[in-house]
Amino acid sequence: MRTYLSDIVHRIALPSFRNANGDTWHEIMGIIEEYLINLRHTVHIQEWKDEFGRTFKNFIVRIEGKSKETFILGAHYDTFEDTPGADDNASAVAVLLGVLKNISPSEPLAYSWEFVLYACEEPPFFGTKNMGSYKHAARMNPADIKCMICLEMVGYFSNEPNSQHYPFSPLKWIYGNKGNFLLGVSNRNSRKIAREIMKHLQGCNPSFYRKLILPFQLSGLDWSDHKNYWSHNIPALMITDTAMFRNSNYHTSKDLPFTLNYQLMERLALDLVSLIKKG
Predict the structure, then answer these.
(1) What range does the domain containing 6 cover?
(2) What is the pTM for the complete model shown?
(3) In this predicted structure, what is the pLDDT of residue 170?
C-alpha cells in the first residue's frame, strides 16, 4: 500500500492543481472520481454551484452495514491558494483511498460507513456554508450518525527534539516535544465515541496515537471539516499530525510529496481498516 499512497500524493500534490478557484479544478475532480471508480466502489456525487457558476463536488462512497447507524470518514481534497498541499491534504486523500482499496464494496460490516472526499475546506470557503463538509453535514440526520472521523494532514512526522509545538504550551508535558505521533482531537460532546475510536487505534499501535479531548474550546482545534459536524450536533473526531504546530511547510510552496512519511501513512490506513472491519 505504501507505493499506492505515494503515487497518489505525487500525482495530485502539484502547485495550484487543487485550488478550488483555479483553472485545473475540473481536472482534480475528475481524478478523484477516477480513483474511486477504479477501486470498484459506487460513487455518489453531491454537487453544487456558486454564484459564479463554478461547480464543486463531494465524492461519497457508502457501504451498508448490519446496522444503519453510520460512521463517516472524510478528508478534503482542495488546497490553500497555489500551494501543492502534499500534507495538506493529499496525505489524507491518499489514506482514505488506501482504506477503500482494502475494503470490498460488499464487505460485511457491523456499522454502515460513508467515505467522503470534500471540496472547499480552505479559504475563502472555510467557516462558511460553502464548505463541502457543511453541505454534507447539513443533509445528515444526527440520530443516524455514530461519529464523523476527519483526516486532516496525516503525513508529516519528525523524531527531532522540539519538532512538536502546541496551541496550549502545557500540553508538551503530556505529549512530548517530538512530532512522531498522530493526535485524535475531539470536543466534550463527542468524548465517549472518540475515546472508543482512539482506544482501538491505540490498541493497534500504542505509541503512535494520542488523544486530546478538552472540556473547553481552544483555538485551532476546530480548523477542519469536523467543525461542521459539531455545529450540527454530530459527534466528530479529527485525526491529525497537528499541521502548523509541527509542519513548517504548512500553507507554503514547500509542502511537497518528498516531505511525507509513507510508511506511517500506511500504518494509519491499515489501522483504520481494522477499526472499520471490527465487529
Answers:
(1) 2-277
(2) 0.96
(3) 87
| CA–CA distance, 133 with 155 (Å, rounded to integer) | 21
174: Cβ–Cβ under 8 A, 6 or more apart, which residues?
none
State the greatest distance between any 2 C-alpha atoms of the chain, in Å, as a whole number. 50
Q: Are strands 67-76 and 111-118 parallel, antiparallel or unpaired?
A: parallel
At 1 the pLDDT is 95
Report the number of distinct structural domains present in the chain: 1
Shortest CA distance to 158 belongs to which of 245, 239, 86?
A: 245
Q: Output 41-47 pairs: Cβ under 8 A, ≥24 positions apart.
A: 41/100, 41/105, 42/105, 46/132, 46/135, 46/136, 46/139
Place of cell 516531505: 259
CB 71 within 8 A of CB 121: no
Q: What is the CATH number of the domain that holds 19?
A: 3.40.630.10
